[in-house]
Amino acid sequence: MPSYVFEVATERGTERYPFTLDDDRALGPQITQVLEELRQRGVILKGGGDDELAAFWGGGELDLTRRAAEQAMSPARPIELRMRQRSAPARTQPADATLPKGVLASAAWGYAGAFAAWVIISRWTDTGAVITDYVRLDQATMLTLGALVGASALAGMALRQRRSVPLGFLIGLCLASAGAGIAASLALLLPAVVSPRGFIVARVLGWALCGGLAAALLSLYGAVMDLRGSAESLALGLVAGAVAGVVFTLPGPSDLWQAVAFMAFGSGVAVAACAPALWHAAAIVEWAGGRRRAGVLSLREWPVPDRGAVALAASRLAWHDGRVALHPAPSGASVDGLAVTQPVYLSEGPLSLDGVSYRLRVRADA
Questions:
Q1: How many CB atoms lie within 10 A of CB 327?
Q2: How far is CA 136 from its chain centroid?
Q3: How far are the Cα atoms of 7, 14, 77, 337 from residue 81, in angstroms, in the given order?
Q4: pLDDT per residue over 27-49, tens digit each?
C-alpha cells in the first residue's frame, strides 16, 4: 500500500505525518483511523466544536465515500486535513429511504420466540385435567406464545442497542405476558359460543386483541413516549393476532396450521413492537466495525428519534434543527479525531466516536 504524507492543521501550525492508505478502500474509514492514531499521539486538529473535517489533495476536496484510485490520487502530493466551518443544514445527499435492518432482525427474533413457544406447546399431550375446553386452551397458548415472543423481541432489541440482554428478556416477558393476560382474561367474559361461526369470530377477536396489546406494551420499552408509534404498534399487532387467529381455525392438519399461526404471530408482533421506532426515526446510527455484512446477531443499530435522545457509548444523540447533534459525556468525547466537550452537529456518512466506527444515515421522513 502506498505511503502518503498528511499535512495536519493544528494549533501549533501545519504538521506532517506519513500514513499508508489502501487505494481500493473508501477514504472515510481510513482517514478516521488516521485521526484516531493522531489523537493517541496527542495531535488534535485546529477547529471549533461545530466545525467539520475536510480533506484535500491536489487543490481539490476529496470525496471520503470514494476510493483513492477513483480520484486519481498518488503519494506525489500530500493530503491536507483541516477543520472548516460546517455548511448550512441543507442536505448534501438524498435522504435514506431504505428499510432499517432492525425491522427484519425484529421479525427474526419474533420468529425465534414463536418457535420456542411452538416446541413447548406441541409437547402438551395430557392437559385434560387443567385445560378442559378450547377457550382455556387458547388462554394458555396466548400466555405462553405472547410471553416468549415478547421476551425474544426485546432481548434482540437490547442486543442491537448494546443494552442488558437479560434485562430486555425479562421486561419483554413481563410486558407481553401482561398484554396476553388481559386478552386471555377477557376471553373468560365471553358467553358460551355454540355456533361454529360464532366460535371462529370469538377466537379471531381474542387473538387480535392479544397481538395488539402485547405489541403496544412492548413498544414502550426504551422509547420516547410517542402516541403515533404506540397506536401503530397496536394496529399492526391487531393485524398479526387476527391473522394468527384465522390460521388457527383453518380445517385440515391442525399441527401445521398451529405452526404457521405461531410464526405469523411471532414475526408480526415483534415487528409491530420494534419497527415503528425505526422507520419513523429521524436518523439511524449503525455500527460499522465489522468486516462482514451485519446479520441478526451482529447488527448494532440505534434510532435517533425526532424528539428526545438516544444513548450511544457515553454520549447522547438528538435531532435538532434538521441535523443530528451529539451531546458528549461530561468528560468529553472524540469525534472523528477531534476532542469535543460541547454539543456538535454530525455529518451523514462515516463517523468515529471514541475510536469506534459507525455510519450515520438520515431518514427520508425526518
A1: 16
A2: 37
A3: 6, 9, 13, 11
A4: 888 888 888 888 888 888 887 66
Most confident of 117-126, 201-210, 228-237: 228-237
Cα separation, 157 vs 301, whole angstroms:
9
173-185 per-residue burial string, b: 16 or more CB within 10 A, e: under 16: bebbbbbbbbbbe
Q: What is the 3-state secondary structure (H, E, C) of 60-85?
A: EECCCCCECHHHCCCCCCCEEEEEEE
Helix (H) or strand (E) holding 149: helix 134-160
Provide the pairing of β-strand 3-10 with 79-85.
parallel
Can you tell me the distance from the alpha carbon of 159 to that of 166, in angstroms, rounded to the nearest whole number? 10
- What is the phi/psi pair of residue 346, to 5°? -110, 145
Q: Say how far apart CA 1 and CA 30 lie, in whole Å.
A: 12
Q: What is the pTM of this model?
A: 0.71
241 closest CA partner among 217, 205, 277: 205
Residue 198 cell numbers, joined? 360464532
Question: How many CA atoms within 13 Å lie on the side-chain side of 350?
Answer: 22
Contact 97, 62 (CB under 8 A): no
- pLDDT (0 to 100) of residue 241: 93
Percent of the chain scored above 90 by pLDDT? Answer: 33
159 CB burial (10 A radius; 0-12, 13-18, 19+)? buried
- Residue pair 244/324 in contact (Cβ under 8 Å)? The answer is no
Rounded to the nearest 10 degrees, how much is the dihedral formed by the CA atoms of 33, 39, 40, 42?
Answer: 150
Strand partners, 16: 7
Q: DSSP assignment of 186-227, as one string?
A: HHHHSPPP-SHHHHHHHHHHHHHHHHHHHHHHHTTTT----H
CA distance linking residue 104 with residue 297, whole number of Å? 12
Would you call 278 exposed, middle or buried from its count of C-beta atoms within 10 A (0-12, 13-18, 19+)? buried
